[in-house]
Amino acid sequence: MPQLTLLTDPHSKNITLSPEKPRQRQLSTFRLGKEKQSPPDLRKLHHEEEDMAAANKSRASAMAQGKAVAMEEDEEEKTVKKEHGPQLNAGKNGDMKGQPDRGKRKHSPEGGGVAGRDAKKHKNAYEIKGKIATAEVAAKVDEDPPLDQLMRLLQHGGKEVPNGESVVYWMRMEDVRIDDNTALYKASQKAQQLHLPLVVLNILSPGEWKIHDRSSKKIDFLLRNLRDLKPKFDALNIPLYITSFDRRLQIPRRVITDLMPLFKSHHLFVNLEYEVDELRRDIATVKFGQEKGVKVECFHDRLVVPPGRITSQAGKPMSVFSPWQRQWAKLLDKEPNLLEMSPLPQGNDPSVRQGPLKDLFDATSVPEDIKGFVPEDKQLLKECWPEGTDAARQLLDRFLHTKARKKQFQLVSPLTEGAEEDDKHSRVREYQDGRNLVDGDNSSRLSPYLALGVISGRMVLNEAAKLGKGKRLESGRDTGVGMWVQEVSWRDFYNHVMAKWPRVSMGRPFLEKFADVQWEINEENLQAWKDGKTGYPIVDAAMRACKARGWMENRVRMVSACFLVKSLLLDWRLGEKYFMESFIDGDLAANNGGWQWTASTGTDPQPYFRIFNTLTQSQKCDPNGDYIRYWVPELKNLKGKAVHDPFHSMPRNEFNKLGYPIPIVDHKQSRERALFRYKNVGQKEE
Ligand SMILES: Cc1cc2nc3c(=O)[nH]c(=O)nc-3n(C[C@H](O)[C@H](O)[C@H](O)COP(=O)(O)OP(=O)(O)OC[C@H]3O[C@@H](n4cnc5c(N)ncnc54)[C@H](O)[C@@H]3O)c2cc1C
Fold first, then answer.
1. CATH dotted code for 147-321+329-353
2. Tell me, what DSSP letter sits at residue 531?
3. Which of the residues 283, 365, 563, 678 has the least number of beta carbons within 10 Å of its own beta carbon?
4. What ipTM did this prediction achieve?
5. Residues near 148 by Cβ (< 8 Å), separated by ≥ 6?
């Protein structure tokens, strides 16, 4: 789901840092859930968007109680105008520089449709409204993306800092592993060089997770992976220090002024995250660090090719996947070191357990659960998604060397016995066709692991390279391995897009010209889609699978997303948010990329009239209907093709006995409607 609208520029002088002295704190006060200090209010200095989200929330509840909301909205508009003026950075005629698609049309402030004027009628719209930047604000941010700002800030290098008594690696939500971890390794090198111990810090932030729509399944998976890591760090005599800061805007200050003094450290190492809020957090952290004598060193690690490395011949950033992908493959060929993995970190000397940092080892533990993020079916999730880098390696090994198995689409462990070794017909070798089928374990199922960084892109590609001719990385549509490598490169692609055009993580369409498509206002249809009760079996099967195990195969992600956007004509951001809140692999760049691709508002050059026929897709991706029969038990006894379209295949009295909903929308009519709305942006048919 999009991140919140950021209204202030953290690079500006607005971020004045408090001259307050760093406090030495007792370890015990950092135990989870025991934040006693009331920290300074960073919102005024940094972000305003949490206020917007809160305002929207209270408006939504006011609306639910039938209270008028228009007044509050005007107030919010006024605040924005007061702070930024009415036409932030807009050129003549509203023309905005640096945007991927600049139309001369006038935009409604929030991008029209469900998030704009009609929002008052749609309770769910409030959930996304506070997260959608205006076109003007997004254009301004695109002009000088936060990643570029951060890079400039880091170029200056900063002042020399004292050695201190430890070196700290801050593990983020996307690098939850020890293997091939750039910042962890660099921190370890620094620690060795200075003869200091290494400390690993992890910050849990339920407040941030809420704002960023993290699913309880993903948080549960995060905690399980941290629990898996704790003894591994312990064996290296490295303390894994876990703390909890609920309010994300306080994190930069608290890291620099509370935690770094606690660790007696002046050296902080991090891997970069490319979402706009995370980059702004890092800008603030670097700036606080510069004020307080902490050197913050940032590294590219999440992707195989860092953002900005791939440009057209004219040196321009690229937003179309196929030519971008060719450049990506060429670059890896030319610079194979991009695939080189970082060595493991050096352990600390055991004497650290007697030294000044000794209390860190037992000061904190990984909580079993975190309130508000406890999934219903923890045991089942553990079965379906075993934690740890070793498990991820096994999943990869199975994918590369064993045959696909029917039934593995069910609620079962991906590592059950009985996988047949077959290097010629392994899942990856059959991936060209297999990737479009949902009735088996045809793809790797590594997305939860890659999204959390339990395994790295480099690690999986190095293994894939061993299967290529001459042990080189194949990339292209000719072989299963090449096709899979190409699929993995989508991860890099969508992150590159997000880093270059941060608008996509601010709720804006990549193609601004589609901002005002008029979406339907229909709570019942949205709910039916979420519950898997649309009367379209393949959509319902996928949505129920999503609810049960937090994961869907790529093909049915596309089918169900297309159904929401083009058949129900509901705002794609509602779907994007729901996926994020439901998936165990929720990842802003990939999810947003997938939704914008489906909604035809993204980087895909295909025109908007590509609209999936749900029935045809169903027959292709689940030819025997096994996937549908499993996930939609009402249809489990249907034979043959009827399972794809029971309403039109059975006598009405027979259909009624199934207890399955009739289709909530007519495919043909809804297709016509979508074509009209996209063709005539801003209009509804008569
Ligand atoms: C509407 C929509 C929403 C999506 N949301 C997410 C999401 O929140 N998180 C997520 O990881 N993927 C998302 N995807 C992309 C893709 O569906 C999943 O990555 C894939 O289904 C995961 O299954 P797998 O691990 O077996 O993939 P494989 O086919 O084995 O591919 C290997 C890896 O490549 C990457 N990858 C593959 N396809 C894509 C893609 N289209 N975009 C980005 N990365 C890709 C993933 O990391 C994946 O694990 C979304 C796609 C759509 C259409």
1. 3.40.50.620
2. H
3. 365
4. 0.99
5. none
